[in-house]
Design brief:
By secondary structure, the chain is an alpha/beta fold. About 35% of the residues lie in helices and about 10% in strands. It is built from 19 helices and eleven strands. The strands form three sheets. It has a seven-stranded mixed sheet with strand order 7-6-5-8-9-11-10, sandwiched between helices. It has a two-stranded antiparallel sheet with strand order 1-2. Strands 3-4 form a two-stranded antiparallel sheet. The longest helix has 26 residues. The N and C termini lie far apart (about 75 Å).
């Protein structure tokens, strides 16, 4: 007989968790995507956290319609290479050789910079001490909070870490939003003048603050801006344009991204360069102050379409710069360890990334090793820690040392809980613990900037972040534990930058570059080379 928890509640999300044997209790989101929004009788089905299921529903509808349609040419099935389109079952063997996605993959593998798996493997030991049969989740929470306190709060007292508050933990990380100065200098007007779709005010503030930190740390003199996981390249566009205004020569903008996306800044750069070459007036009238602040016609961009796991950055840079000798030079010394401290090579590369998801940050950092002798600064805004991978993570040594004492073990099993609980920052942003008039959980009006799976609905884990914080009565709540997990993962990356990319001549920091109300994923890794360039 079904219990009360098994029943759908009116006005609540219809997602059903097989593990918990109940429906999601969050309020329905009024936002309905197309094509469902155009259907007059269609009513909301999911909460904001499960809104991605509309896409699944649409695909299932479309697939069922195709599968059950009468077609004399035979049965249609999802393509085994790219399930987003359907093919006739009888044509599978012929199709796999000419499928557009397969052709694109073959073309990418033929690129000189494609080296399969070159940046995988992470860095550091895989297992500290002998692994235990099961993970004591409550003890692991204690270890996480102790490691956070010891690392960021510079305290190793015996005070019970359960009493740490969210405010204390958040305040332990420096906050420095530098957007205002960039806005006053004309960043927003320059973006609008060049007709670049920035994605809204919150993205503008994030990009502006990153530019401000680049300026504050004297990194605008870069000749090459290398954006990892570039996406639409709006961050690279802003950074390279500001850099170009500081010099007479053009700045190279190298964009590394595995997939395509719409509304890219590439179109604006092509248009601007075309107008510049044809002596046409640029779009919009620029003041002298704006010209001194931003120079889009001083940017020469190149897009490298390749997964960060497989891209050889030396080969990519060589192709962009037309200097094949660079590849030969790096290949001759393997991991470039013999040239990392060379004095005859100018440090003219600035590495940037905005919200490079999960393991993408680790792959990007490892890919830089062969050209680290050319890099003067690193500035990376991280996100989506829930999809990090222990096998690809570059901070294994730090995390193992920080989390272990006496005979405690640490490895992939413990890391998987940490990355899973890292979603607490989004859970905390969505759910504020308040109740409605009926005494039931009340949903926040804020939808996550980076949608992720509900922490309590993951079949792989016995206990989610909301449940463990409630069970242990943590004062910091789900958001506090989530932030502790995220910052420990990020600090391991900082240590990798310090030891493997900059050495003794570097300065590395971890900070909040915008307020958490702008984005809950508001951490920035900064690395600056301070030796002789």
């Amino acid at each position: 007989m079904a219990g009360d928890n098994d029943r759908k509640e009116e006005g609540r999300c219809t997602y059903y968790s097989e593990k918990k044997k109940r429906y999601c209790r969050q309020l329905l989101s009024p936002k309905i995507p197309e094509p469902f929004a155009s259907e007059p009788d269609f009513k909301p089905l999911f909460c904001g956290n499960h809104s991605s299921l509309y896409t699944t529903l649409y695909k299932d509808r479309k697939r069922q319609k195709v599968l059950h349609s009468d077609d004399s040419r035979g049965k249609r099935i999802p393509c085994p290479i790219d399930p987003s389109h359907m093919i006739y079952e009888k044509n599978v063997k012929a199709h796999i050789h000419k499928c557009p996605k397969a052709m694109i993959a073959i073309e990418e593998r033929q690129r000189v910079y494609y080296k399969h798996g070159i940046n995988t493997g992470g860095h550091g030991k895989h297992q500290i001490e002998e692994p235990k049969a099961t993970v004591d989740t409550q003890q692991l929470v204690y270890r996480i909070l102790r490691a956070y306190r010891n690392t960021f709060m510079k305290s190793s007292t015996d005070e019970d870490v359960i009493s740490l508050t969210l405010e204390e933990m958040y305040g332990a990380i420096p906050s420095d939003n530098l957007f205002t100065s960039e806005e006053e200098s004309g960043l927003e007007s320059m973006i609008a003048t060049n007709r670049v779709k920035i994605g809204g005010r919150k993205h503008l503030e994030q990009i502006g603050s990153l530019v401000g930190h680049i300026r504050k740390n004297n990194l605008l003199e870069a000749d090459t801006v290398l954006e990892m996981g570039a996406g639409r390249a709006t961050t690279g566009f802003a950074v390279s344009g500001v850099c170009a205004a500081q010099k007479e020569n053009k700045v190279k903008l190298v964009l590394v991204e595995r997939g395509g996306s719409r509304s890219k800044a590439d179109s604006a750069l092509r248009r601007i360069n075309s107008n510049s070459n044809s002596d046409k007036e640029p779009t919009g009238k620029l003041t002298d102050a704006e010209k001194k602040y931003f120079r889009a016609d001083g940017v020469d961009f190149h897009r490298i379409k390749c997964d960060l796991a497989h891209v050889s950055i030396p080969h990519a840079m060589a192709e962009v710069e037309g200097k094949p000798a660079l590849c030969q030079e790096v290949n001759s010394v393997g991991d470039a360890s013999n040239i990392s401290q060379r004095k005859d090579v100018k440090r003219d590369v600035l590495v940037i990334a905005k919200h490079l998801c999960g393991a993408g940050t680790d792959l990007a950092l490892k890919s830089i090793v062969p050209i680290r002798h050319r890099v003067n600064g690193y500035i990376l805004a991280t996100c989506c820690h829930g999809v990090c991978s222990w096998d690809l993570y570059v901070g294994r040594d730090f995390l193992g040392d920080a989390m272990c004492s006496a005979s405690e073990s640490f490895g992939e099993a413990e890391f998987n809980y940490i990355r899973k609980w890292a979603t607490g920052t989004v859970v905390g942003d969505q759910y504020n613990g308040s109740k409605d008039d009926n005494g039931k959980d009340k949903e926040s009006d804020t939808e996550p900037e980076h949608p992720s799976n509900n922490d309590n609905d993951d079949e792989e884990y016995e206990i989610g972040v909301s449940r463990i914080t409630s069970l242990m009565n943590l004062k910091c709540g789900a958001e506090g534990l989530g932030r502790a997990c995220q910052r420990l993962i990020d600090y391991g990356r900082c240590e990798y930058i310090r030891k493997e990319l900059l050495g003794d001549n570097g300065r590395v920091s971890l900070s909040h570059y915008v307020d958490k109300n702008i984005t809950p994923q508001n951490a920035m890794l900064l690395g600056v080379y301070e030796g002789d360039c």
